[in-house]
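About this split. The held-out portion is used to measure sequence recovery: a designer receives only the structure tokens and must propose an amino acid at every position. Recovery is the fraction of positions where the proposal matches the reference. Here is one held-out target exactly as it appears in the evaluation file.
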């Protein structure tokens, strides 16, 4: 556990070797990476954490200050504690936070692995208005249902992201956790930002974007747009997977992460600076994510 100006931050590390920092998404904590860590720890130093409001990391956002900055500051504190530079990996909302860190360039990074980042604003910018509006309609329906007393409203979002019936297929403990954390998830959606497509070319880091074969079309298309916009990115699709890849396809995901990190290490690019001065100007606190 770390301590920064906002309070405690989850921090755990295992193994030795190149440092990989793993950032979970919404409705999740550092424990979400357990199976990934098991697949990596013999070759790498793995560091896990939780975003504000999840696990043991204190909620640092307020009603008047809910921008992505608070989440980014949490991960920056973790990276600084590792001694850096690090290979940064994020899933879903955590991947969006990782994207913000790469754009801001305030901490030393060697590579990025972004697993279905919820960068839905890219759809609108790329002219995919129908897909963008599809997501917005679902998001607004979910939030409206919760605010009108439907405590299981999260079922709509989970089934949208991972396929019909996914919420009911979860163990009862998992369903209850999601229900209890719904207010935090809604705050996450209001804490996002829309990176501009033009700004993404400033990220020079070797980057891997991963999506699931059966993920919702807006997620899959966003991943495609992102990978094409970044200067040094590749796109991989995991067969049979939907949005919750770290849980359902841990072994294959660990292999992709490990291979990407080793490839980057072999290039010996750690002496280069990948920092971008363009990040903060592209944040949009009103951006919609999940």
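Reference sequence for scoring:
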């Amino acid at each position: 556990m770390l301590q920064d100006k906002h309070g405690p931050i989850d921090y755990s590390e295992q193994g030795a070797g190149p440092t990989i920092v793993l950032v979970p998404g919404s409705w999740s904590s550092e424990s979400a990476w357990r199976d990934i860590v098991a697949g990596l720890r013999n070759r790498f130093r793995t560091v896990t954490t939780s975003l504000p409001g999840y696990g043991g990391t204190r909620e640092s956002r307020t009603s008047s200050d809910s921008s992505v900055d608070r989440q980014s500051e949490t991960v920056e504190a973790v990276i600084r504690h590792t001694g850096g530079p690090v290979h940064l990996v994020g899933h879903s909302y955590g991947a969006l936070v990782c994207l913000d860190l790469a754009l801001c360039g305030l901490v030393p990074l060697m590579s990025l692995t972004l697993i279905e980042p919820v960068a839905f604003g890219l759809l609108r910018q790329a002219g995919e208005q129908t897909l963008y509006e599809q997501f917005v309609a679902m998001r607004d329906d979910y939030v409206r249902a919760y605010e009108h007393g439907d405590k299981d409203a999260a079922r709509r979002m989970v089934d949208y992201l991972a396929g019909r019936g996914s919420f009911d297929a979860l163990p009862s403990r998992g369903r209850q956790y999601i229900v209890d954390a719904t207010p935090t998830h809604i705050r996450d959606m209001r804490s996002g930002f829309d990176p501009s497509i033009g700004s993404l070319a400033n990220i020079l880091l070797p980057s891997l974007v991963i999506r699931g074969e059966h993920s919702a079309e807006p997620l899959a298309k966003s991943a495609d747009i992102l990978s094409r916009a970044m200067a040094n990115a590749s796109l991989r699709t995991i067969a049979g997977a939907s949005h919750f890849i770290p849980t359902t396809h841990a072994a294959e995901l660990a292999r992709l992460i490990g291979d990407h990190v080793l490839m980057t290490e072999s290039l010996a690019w750690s002496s280069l600076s990948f920092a971008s001065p363009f990040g903060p100007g592209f944040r949009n606190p009103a951006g919609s994510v999940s």
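Annotator remark: The first strand starts at residue 2 and ends at 4.
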